[in-house]
Each structure stands twice: as C-alpha cells, then as structure tokens.
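Researcher: Hi, I'm a grad student and pretty new to this. My advisor asked me to get structures for two proteins we've been looking at. I'm not sure of the right format, so I'll just paste the first sequence and hope you can take it from there.
Model: That works fine. Here's the first sequence with its structure tokens right after it:
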Amino acid sequence: MNTAKKRNEGIAAWRRAPAFRCRETSRSRPAASLIVVALLTASCRGSTHETAQPAFAITEDADQILITSSTLEAAIRKQGYVSGVYRQSLLDKKSGFRDAGFGLDIADFILEPGSDAAERDQLDKRLVYDYDNLVHGNIAKRHIEGPQICTQAKQLSPTVIQGDGFVAVKMSFEYYLAAPGRNSGSLWEQTIVFPAGKRYFISSQKISSKNAADEMFLRIDMPGHIRHERGDTFSEVYLSYHGRIPSSEFFEDFPPDAKFHYRRGRDQTPQRFIRAYHLRNSETGSDGPWLAGMTLDPAIVYEGWCHQRGYISMIEEFGPGRVEEGDSFSAAFIVGYFDSIEEMEQVYDEYAGARGLEANAATWQLTD
C-alpha cells in the first residue's frame, strides 16, 4: 500500500466517528459585519453512549477569522500581518498556553542561492538581500520574487470550508515584484486544516512558479519565531537534526550560520524534521507544553535557521531543487501543542511523507 493511501485511510478512520455536517461559508457577506457560526455536534449514530466530535465556532469580521474548538483557538488575519496563524492567537485549551512569537506558519519570499550585488541598482529596495551580518549571516542569497507576504501583501481573502469533523482555511497571493530578468506573478497558496479534537493544525504552502531556477525555495517561519527575555517564555528548543538546546544558548545574539544551522546536501537528512520549543510561564517559571512545527517530508527542506537576533529566528526554506517555469512545489506541516517529544514523533509518523494538502467541503487529505 502506498504512503498516501495508508495515511489517508487512517485519517478516514477517525473521521468516521460521529461528527457534524457543515457547508462552505459564503464570501458575499459585508466585510464589516460580524458573523458567528456555531456548529452543533451531531447526535450519536445509533447509541447514546458514543461521544460526538466537538463543535467549532467561527467568528469573522473585516480583520480576521477566529476559529474555536474544544481544544484550540486560532485567528487567521485578513489584513495587516497576514498568512498563517496570527501571533499569540493559538490557544491550547488543555494548558492555557499560547504561542510566544510573531505568528505561526508565516510566508515570505521566493529565493535562490547567490548574491544580488551585481544588480542592486536595478532592484526594488524590497528585493535587496544584504548578508554578512547578524540577520542573514554569511549566506549569500537573492530574491527571485517578492514582496514579503506577511508584511507587504497587506490584505488576503481567506476562504473558510466547514467540513465533517474539520474546518479548513485557504488563501493565496500573486507575487508582483521580480528580480531583473525574472517574471512576476508566481502564485502562493496556503491551506490550513483544523481537525476536530486535535491540539494541532495541518497545513501546506505551495508555489506555482513563473520562473526557472537550479535551486528555488520559499522562505517561511516554521513553527514561528520565539519572543523572550533571557528565556522567560521557553525553557528549551528541540531540533530533530540537533537535539535539545537549553534556553541559555539564546541569551546573546548570533548569526544563523554560527550554530544550530541545517543545510540540505551538507548535513544528513534527518528521519523526521521537527522544530519545537518548550513553553514556560514567564511569571511562575513553570513549564507548559511543547509548541512544534513539523515538515512532513524532510527531503523538501533546503535550509533551517534557529538563531538569536533580539528574538529566536526560526526561518525555514523549502523547495525541490531544480524548478522549471510552470512547475509547482509544496510542503506539508503539522503545527501545534504536544506534551512530549515522543508524542511529536508518534504524530509525525502517522502523517510522514506528505508534501501537499487538499481540502473541500466533503473531505481533506494529505498528498505526496
């Protein structure tokens, strides 16, 4: 049995539990209106002793979509700082903790290796890539297309899908800036699925390219940056390709290539690609859950950063290598809360190998 079929049969098994039936939301409502969709759980199928899947509540206004279930709460922004899940909005109801960064599963630019020094005078200032500094280290890269989605797209139009046992959000953006000799107009797409009863969401980011390159990759934040003051919000970081790292390693700034740096081709590809931080209550010092970001196919990851620059930068770049004009590439992720590294590994292995994610009103599934 192939990996995708086995994985999706497992997904279908829990989805056959009693759940609610929903529909795709209308996008024709006035932007300023407030819509609350309370989705009640369905009655048990043939037995009063079975437990129905929990309901979702979806609250939408001109600025954001707020998704609430029995396990999580998350906001998807429509304007301002967009893409992924909005900062400090991912609430783990089991522990009461929220994420400690600027957002989760956030999208940036399309890049390739190499310096842009020879074309600086032709570049839009938003596409200039400085390096040999604390922010980027001594790693030469250049933009193929921009701008940075999270800060410069300014407005997205997410579509919400309410399905049987899940809620999904889809959003997209066309890049409108390109380096000299390159085409603009590549399409970025993100799909996020919140499965009922889970403390994590499943997502994918996809590029349909208008350009060719020997090495092309999309820069994202995975799971997301970590804001802290000398480790007050987290006690340790876990990188599956490195191990556990105490918070004290991040008390002083250092560039991305100084330590904890991953590069495909230079480093051994890990069995699992997991990046996580162990949350800490900044007032009491007590540990909470781990917040993890898992890339389900380690081979798709080009580079991973975990360095201190006023906050911990958890940049990740993914791409398949050579890309031709008209090609598409994607990666699939799991982002959320876990009580142990062992639990992360167990969930990872249930979904391992996926690179894409599809969702419609009837179902959702990971794809290879």
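Researcher: Oh nice, that was easy. Here's the second one.
Model: And its structure:
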Amino acid sequence: MNKILASTLFLCLSILAQAQEKPKEINELKLNLNENGSHYLKATFLNQVWLRSNQSNPGTHVLGELNNKTFDIGLRRTRFQLYGQMTDRVFVYFQFGQNNFNYLSQTSGNRKIQAFFHDALGEYRITKGSEKLILGGGLTIANGLSRFSQPSIGTIMTLDVPVFAQPTVDQTDEFSRKLSVYARGQLGKLDYRIVLSDPFPVTTNGQTPPSLSGNASFSQLGHHKQYQGLFIYNFFDVEAHTTPYMTGTYLGKKKVLNLEAGFINQANATWTKEGTDTTYHNLNLWSAAVFYDAPVNPEKGTALNAYIGYYNYDYGPGYLRYNGIMNPASSVNGPFPVGSQGNAFPMFGTGKVWYTQIGYLLKKDLLGDGNGTLMPYASLMSANYERLDKQMNVVDVGVNWFLKGHNSKFTLDYQNRPFYLQEGTDLIRNGRRSQVVLQYQIYF
C-alpha cells in the first residue's frame, strides 16, 4: 500500500511540475507518456460524504439500545484510481478505496481496516487503433446483466446506484468485483462484453452465512464458474468505454439512446434443504432495458436522462436478502425479518423487478455565474419477489446541485421504503419508513 501511495504522489508531483511550465488550469491529473498523448497515465480520486436522517424500521437497535430514528455522518465511497494506455495495445487499471464507512464500521472489531483493492486489471487490444476486440483479466467490475451492474459511480444521476442490479454484491464477489477474464469491444453500433468469472465462496465474505433451509441461499459446498454477458445497441452516439465502467449521465454532452440485454448464469450456485435432502439450484439472472441521455436545448444546456429496465432473477426457490446501504443500525428484535434493522429492505430476491429513473438538467448557470445549476430526479424500484405478500415499491426523489459538473456537487435525496413482519418464512408488508440524505461529492 505504501508503494502505491508513493507512486500516486510521484505522479501528482510530476503533473504539478509540468503545470508550472504552462500557467493554465489543470483539468485532470494526467501524465503523457509520448508526444501526442495517446500513451498516458492518469490518476483520479473521489469522496462522497453523507449526512443522513433515517426513520428506523420497527425493532431497530443501535448497539443494544432501541432506536426509532438515527442521524449519522459517513463516507459512502472514498476511491483512488490509477489507469492508463501504456502502449498502443496495453491498458491497465487499478482502484483502491473503501465504502460505507460510518460510526458502526469495523472489521473484526477494528475500525481502521476498511480500504482494499476494488480493481486490478490489464487489457490487450487485439488490433491497434480498433475497438472491435479487447481482451482483459484480473479483479474487475466487468459484468453482464446491465449498465448498472458496472456503474461509473462518479457520474451517477441519482444519489446512488440501484444496488439490486449488482445481484451477488458482497456474497460471492468483492463489492461487485470478481476475478474474471473477458472480451469486450464495439462492432459498429453494438457494444458487447462476455465474461468468465471465478466467484468467491460465500464463507469468505466476513458474515455468517444463513442456515441451510427450504429457502435458497448461496451454497457452501462446491465451486462453479460464472458466465456473464451484456449487449448494447447504440442508436445515436456510441458510448466510449475507456474502462469497463458505464457512465450514469453525460449532462448533455452526448446524445445516447441504447437498447441493452444481459445475463448472469452459474451452475449449482445456491442450495435448499427439505428434510434430509439437499437440492442445488442454478443462478439464472437476465435483464433488458432502454437508456436515454441527451441534450434538450444545447444553447441553454438542458438535458434529459431516463432509464427503464426489467430484471428477471432466479436465485432458487424463496431466495430473499435484506440490505441497507451503510446501515446506521446494528440489530433488530421482535417479529421482524433477520437483517431488517435501520434502513434495510428486501433488496434482492427470486422474482421480477422493474426499475426506472428520470432526471432533467436545468439551464446552465441557473443559480448565477459560477454557482452552477440543478437537476431534479426521481426513481422507482418495483419488485415482485416470491416471499413478499405484495409488490414492493421503493421511491427516491431528489435534486443534484452541480457546482462544477460531477466534479463538485451536492445531492439531496428523500427515500420511502416498506417494512415487513415475519410470518413463517413469508414477509407481510406492515408500513413504510423514510430517510433523507445530503451528499457532497468531490471527483477529480
């Protein structure tokens, strides 16, 4: 880690030294490795600070104390990236950082153990100057399923990504990253990626796996590779994918209309038990979606972002998993599902999900010269999971205040979610709760 930080510091100092020769604003931390800049090394950093007020789900306890409402300050993401085109055909990418760091964060009782490598990959371009076929491998977020399964978190349009679209997150992957080899590229208007992944065992995710029961959970016996694919047709501008990450919104700089479809498959990924018989189930996930992001009035700088996607999830019978983003609570007591404390809701499950979002970028310099503009938005996750008694709807509405595009922005978000009672193995909706988050993002 010390060598990485020293190398990053050396890169930054080298760029600053170059900048002193050219008295102009630095737009990026980039070191050119040849005269025309086609070979380069680039560094970025991102920090997302959350201030949050949350109405706790019933039965929530914080460090043993019943708590109906929480206020917390946290780091949703803190990341450093180092990547570059080293030769005409060789590309490297590294990302180091931490996620979901708040007052409860710890690893085996140590709050100082948080940061880890998110990505460490290398790519080889088969033909010089061509995007048709790029082969890559390493620890990577290159996935199948959808654009939100590999999101560029510095450019997302809503407060946060729809995490349900990262369906094995921190179960058999490392914060949605896996050890993989892949082929990706662009054939005319068609963007594709095909991935072979080596998933991690669920027993190494730092949590106690659920007991084997009649409801599917990730298997603790055996090991099987995972196969993924994503195919996107670009009707207008072709999206550039320097890294495997996919942009959330271009803020009117591109005209994008995409039709996408993707899948994730893994044999014997989960298991159930009836009596003395253990049955294994394949993981079969697929989705289809439309994504639109384009200027409305280029002179005024207005733009529209919209997405609608259908996700069909089969983890095995009865699979259901609660998740609360940077959960501000530690436990739940009473007739409530395990893991339902704080701001959690049943985010993942066997069943069907519709997700949609829409946002409108208002005119540039709306708030005066140098004060930026606003982008209000709304999103809806609507899930019909097997073990839920009714359709589950999670609604977010909010507004971005762009001071300097995605480089410096505030986001204010209101979320409304359901909570449930446990009746046997089924969940009965019993009411709704909400949270308000103010985020400040720095991304350079």
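Researcher: Is there anything I should tell my advisor about the second?
Model: You could mention this: The radius of gyration is 22 Å.
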